[in-house]
Structure formats: structure tokens, C-alpha cells
């Protein structure tokens, strides 16, 4: 049995969960999430807890057991609390602002970078150089943050780029001149 998979999932009182056949629908104050699960995974609801199990214990099913337990837990946390990723723009003249459903970044290119914000994701510019990205779907949030970061990944010589909050860049010494 999977160590992660056998842990019970506590369902918050503000969240409504519906399990039918191979479909899990979770509704909360921040939105609705839906996921299809494989037939080898079974879900039991007991007094405010969810217990995820497998029908037969093969090596592949044990891996799916822990995976789907974590995915369902992330769905519950997302619709009740939301996930937040903070990005910091580090560099001279790097700025961000939100215009309608688009994120506009000035990253030292000859043109501003426009990135469409997908449905279900909120972007808030705290200062000109700090972005708070919120969503109830952890997977979509991570993909969008990585897409934004890919326009200027951090570089080790000057430390410029788009960084996750708290990320440390290992700085390299530049090349030494002739003596």
C-alpha cells in the first residue's frame, strides 16, 4: 500500500464533493474542479473524510494510488483556499501590468511581451516588479507561472530575470581579463 495514498483526506465543511463512477467533482467558494480517475482507484466517503484505495495491488496501481490521493487533496485545497505563486521581476527597467485579460511585461526586449491570462487564473501586480498569481487549479497555475518565467529565466552572471519568490540564484564569476 502507498504511504501517501493510505492517508485520509479531510474534507472542509465549505466544500461539496461528488464522486460518480470515474469522475470527481469538487465545488467550493473559489470555483469548481473536475477530474477523471482510473477504474483501479476507488474513493470512499466517511464522516468528513475521503479514503482513496486501489482494487488490486500491482506496482503501477500503487503509484497511481498516491498520485490520485494527492491530486484530489490539491483539488480540495484549491477550491477552499486557492494556491498562490509570487513572481519577482529582477532587472533594470523590468515592469509588469495587467490590461483587461492580458499580462503586459517589459523585460528589456524591443517590444512589450503580451501574455493572455487563462480563465480561472487571477494575476495581481503588487508593485511594478512583483506578480501574485492565484488559481484553484494547482496544475494550471504552475503551467502559467512557468510560461511567464520562460520569457526571462534567471541568469547566473547578473542575477536578472523572473524569479519565484524566495528563489536564490547561484551567481557565477564572469570571465577574467588578460593580465
Automatic annotation (TrEMBL):
<feature type="domain" description="Large ribosomal subunit protein uL6 alpha-beta">
    <location>
        <begin position="11"/>
        <end position="81"/>
    </location>
</feature>
<dbReference type="GO" id="GO:0003735">
    <property type="term" value="F:structural constituent of ribosome"/>
</dbReference>
<comment type="similarity">
    <text>Belongs to the universal ribosomal protein uL6 family.</text>
</comment>
<keyword id="KW-0934">Plastid</keyword>
<keyword id="KW-0694">RNA-binding</keyword>
<comment type="subunit">
    <text>Part of the 50S ribosomal subunit.</text>
</comment>
<dbReference type="GO" id="GO:0009507">
    <property type="term" value="C:chloroplast"/>
</dbReference>
<dbReference type="InterPro" id="IPR002358">
    <property type="entry name" value="Ribosomal_uL6_CS"/>
</dbReference>
<keyword id="KW-0699">rRNA-binding</keyword>
<dbReference type="GO" id="GO:0019843">
    <property type="term" value="F:rRNA binding"/>
</dbReference>
<protein>
    <recommendedName>
        <fullName>Large ribosomal subunit protein uL6c</fullName>
    </recommendedName>
</protein>
<feature type="domain" description="Large ribosomal subunit protein uL6 alpha-beta">
    <location>
        <begin position="91"/>
        <end position="164"/>
    </location>
</feature>
<dbReference type="InterPro" id="IPR020040">
    <property type="entry name" value="Ribosomal_uL6_a/b-dom"/>
</dbReference>
<keyword id="KW-0689">Ribosomal protein</keyword>
<dbReference type="InterPro" id="IPR019906">
    <property type="entry name" value="Ribosomal_uL6_bac-type"/>
</dbReference>
<dbReference type="GO" id="GO:0005840">
    <property type="term" value="C:ribosome"/>
</dbReference>
<comment type="function">
    <text>Binds 23S rRNA.</text>
</comment>
<dbReference type="GO" id="GO:0006412">
    <property type="term" value="P:translation"/>
</dbReference>
<dbReference type="InterPro" id="IPR036789">
    <property type="entry name" value="Ribosomal_uL6-like_a/b-dom_sf"/>
</dbReference>
<dbReference type="GO" id="GO:1990904">
    <property type="term" value="C:ribonucleoprotein complex"/>
</dbReference>
<keyword id="KW-0150">Chloroplast</keyword>
<dbReference type="InterPro" id="IPR000702">
    <property type="entry name" value="Ribosomal_uL6-like"/>
</dbReference>
<dbReference type="Pfam" id="PF00347">
    <property type="entry name" value="Ribosomal_L6"/>
</dbReference>
<keyword id="KW-0687">Ribonucleoprotein</keyword>
Amino acid at each position: 500500500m502507498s504511504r501517501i495514498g493510505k492517508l485520509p483526506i479531510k474534507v472542509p465543511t465549505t466544500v461539496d464533493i461528488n464522486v460518480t463512477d470515474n469522475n470527481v467533482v469538487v465545488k467550493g467558494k473559489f470555483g469548481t474542479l473536475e477530474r477523471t480517475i482510473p477504474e483501479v482507484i476507488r474513493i470512499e466517503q466517511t464522516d468528513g473524510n475521503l479514503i482513496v484505495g486501489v482494487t488490486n495491488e500491482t506496482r503501477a496501481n500503487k503509484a497511481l494510488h498516491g498520485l490520485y490521493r494527492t491530486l484530489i487533496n490539491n483539488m480540495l485545497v484549491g477550491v477552499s483556499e486557492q494556491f498562490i505563486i509570487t513572481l519577482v521581476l529582477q532587472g533594470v527597467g523590468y515592469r509588469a501590468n495587467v490590461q483587461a485579460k492580458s499580462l503586459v511585461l517589459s523585460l528589456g526586449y524591443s517590444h512589450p511581451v503580451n501574455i493572455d491570462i487563462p480563465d480561472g487564473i487571477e494575476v495581481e501586480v503588487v508593485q511594478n516588479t512583483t506578480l501574485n498569481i492565484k488559481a484553484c487549479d494547482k496544475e494550471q497555475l504552475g503551467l502559467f507561472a512557468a510560461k511567464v518565467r520562460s520569457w526571462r529565466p534567471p541568469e547566473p552572471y547578473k542575477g536578472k530575470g523572473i524569479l519565484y519568490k524566495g528563489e536564490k540564484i547561484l551567481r557565477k564569476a564572469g570571465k577574467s581579463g588578460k593580465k
